[in-house]
Amino acid sequence: MTSVRARALRLIPYGVFDAVTNMAIDEALLELHLQGKTPATLRFYGWEPPAVSFGYSQKVSQRTVDKVRAAGYDAVRRPTGGRAVLHEGELTYCFVGAGPKQDGIDFRPDAEIESAPSYWLEQGSPYEGFLPGSINQAYKEICDALIYGLRELGVAASLGRSNSAYKDYEDCFQATTQADLQFDGKKIVGSAQLRRRHGVLQHGSIMINQSQTKLSEIFGLADSEFTDAAAGKADRHCNLIDVLAGGYDRTALEEAIGRGFTRKFDCHFAVYELTDEEMEFVAELKKDKSRYQIL
User: What is the C-alpha separation between 94 and 138, in angstroms, rounded?
Assistant: First the structure.
């Protein structure tokens, strides 16, 4: 038997999947983490074909879904809350972790776990909790890690502020919340969270070079207050490509955010691809055709 003490976080390298597979992977990581089979994990991914994702409880009409598909985008229901997000010209992150206690397992920093799966051995204790029990505080700590990473690249991002009008919008990026990041008053990262027992799944969209008007055009929101700056109105969001002094490099961004997480949570990374067991769980989730279906 091997005892594991070190605090560590797994990193899944960037991959591109279709919309349903992306949502199933994120949910599978959460469920398997709750079962003690998958460690705390950070992953980055893209979408092919590009898609529009809708929050779990967001009301969506057939007309809206038809518009999304007519424009050439997939439509998918996220397991997390929030409003619609366009997954094009962006980078998506997902973090899965847990609070201080899960199913009777003690997440003390010095907890000693016997017989950890071999691929975790370099990584450290897969059972150690990273997050506080409070929903708001968990959001803040994950966002702090993102902020550290962005600031390393010279982007002075900060936490967004609550906006009571957020729930009235279809589009996630039309307003900020305390779960989002902003730069120069404009939203640059939009995030949403799902909690099951003491497990936490938070994923979000980091704006890279996304059109200011595309989602409004798809939804037919011609009178949206967020239109092209050339029309004399404010930008909807901030794109990293416009504020990074050295230009955008996806790998550099991922590495910087990774270092932000190691700084925030005082841990180290081990890089591991998705396992066969995880992909088998993903396949099982996808068998439920209604799980991520909009209508």
Answer: 14
Residue 26, classed as helix, strand or coil, is helix
161 vs 177: CA distance, rounded Å: 5
Domain ranges of the chain: 8-287
Q: In 10 A of CB 224, how many CB atoms?
A: 19
pLDDT of residue 24: 98
Token pair of 24, please?
A: 């199933």
Closest among 12, 18, 206, 265 to 119, alpha carbons compared: 12
Architecture of the structural domain at 8-287:
2-Layer Sandwich (3.30)
- How far is Cα 9 from Cα 173, in angstroms, rounded to an integer? 29
- pLDDT score of 150 more than 60: yes
Quick: pLDDT tens for 198-238: 889 999 999 999 999 999 999 886 444 444 444 445 688 99
pLDDT band at 155 (very low <50, low <70, confident <90, very high): very high
- The angle at the Cα of 129, spanning 280 to 124, to the nearest 5 degrees, equals 70
- Helix (H) / strand (E) element for 154: namely none
Helix (H, G, I), strand (E, B) or coil at 22: helix
